[in-house]
Amino acid sequence: MGVIILYGFFCALLLFSLFKKHWGKPQQRGNLPPGSMGWSYIGETLQLYSQNPDVFFATRQKRFGEIFKTHILGYPCVMLASPEAIRFVLVTKADLFKPTYPRSKEQLIGPSAIFFHQGAYHSQMRKLVQGSFSLKIIRNLVPEIEAIAMSTLESWCGGKIVNTFYELKKFTFDVAVLSIFGDLDSPIKEKLRKNYCILDKGYNSFPLSLPGTSYNTSVLARKKIGQILFEIIRVRKEKNSVQNDFLGSLLNFKDEKGEILRDDQILDNIIGVLFAAQDTTASILTWILKYIHDDPKLLEAIKKEQKPFFEANDGGNLPLTWAQTRNMPLTNGVIMESLRMASIISFTFREAVTDVEYNGKS
Ligand code: HEM
């Protein structure tokens, strides 16, 4: 059994337990891919954290090929970096693998979040997420999302230099908060933002739980986020109001036996969705801005497409509607093409549930 990392656009996959099972039994290890397992226990974790992760993976890929072994974050892994290998793990032989994350990352998000589960609980959480972020729900949020976009743009005025990705992370955080909680009081939202930023900063740091380390600071911020969310949940339960947002669906959920979700399950899934939604969306928005910036003709064509809606909305005084957003083929084409071109998620993890052989390596 084992873990895998998928890298690149999904260029690499980490196979952890595949090795764990036979650790220390060389006669049963099979034909492992080339690569280095580094030092005992810490493996190559220090090398990974002492350089840009893309350089770490790319140098090994160049040296060993598209399948290589390594040992990071406490796990022996296999890295896969070819479309065929990734299709093998995610599509054709998906039943031989299960989603997994290094424990350090699971601790920061929360063990009950959707990512760390399979089976009935996973399907239930998936349905809840899909329902709360469905077009049916999102279409009603268009005016509020537009208002957040306008206020983000206004905050860039005045000739100051901004970091596009970080600014768009603020924007996607606000949109995520709107979809999860509906209206949230400003002071609570700011407290949540502050602690979520700290958690986010340490998410990819070296997982050393010592006072002062980035990882430990993140763990402490995670605890504070827990307290803030428990309080939000308590107040919402007290009000007993039915709300159409993600928190509302988590609170209303009952499984087939009539069991409701525990507060810690609700909390972990909220942090999970924040985590899944914020960076990914901010990243694609940043790419879209870059592509448009690099192609002035495209920018002009997009403006031309959008101008009639701007004018119909009284120069932006009336809110944008869902129907208008559906009637912008060029704008939508640019979004879809950017999603195709840009590598938003550079790697992910899987754990083999049984011994797996691929291209003569196992
Ligand atoms: C451009 C934006 C996005 C991209 C490129 C993206 C990409 C992905 C990918 C590749 C996965 C699979 C990861 C894996 O299997 O290891 C995933 C999972 C997931 N994403 Fe997104 N995502 C985006 C936006 C969002 C948003 C806005 C949400 C908000 C709800 C979201 C929620 C999730 C959840 C809950 C999962 C786990 C699904 C499961 O375990 O069944 N994602 N995303």
TrEMBL record:
Keyword Amino-acid biosynthesis: no
Protein's name according to its UniProt entry: Uncharacterized protein
Presence of the UniProt keyword Iron in the record: yes
Molecular-function GO terms, alphabetical: (+)-abscisic acid 8'-hydroxylase activity; heme binding; iron ion binding
Keywords for the protein's UniProt record, in alphabetical order: Iron, Metal-binding, Signal
Superkingdom per UniProt: Eukaryota
GO biological process: sterol metabolic process
Pfam families referenced in this protein's UniProt entry, alphabetically: p450
Alphabetized InterPro entries for the sequence: Cyt_P450 (IPR001128), Cyt_P450_E_grp-IV (IPR002403), Cyt_P450_sf (IPR036396)
Organism listed in the record: Quercus rubra
Family of this protein: Belongs to the cytochrome P450 family.
SUPFAM superfamilies in the record: Cytochrome P450
Signal peptide boundaries: 1-24
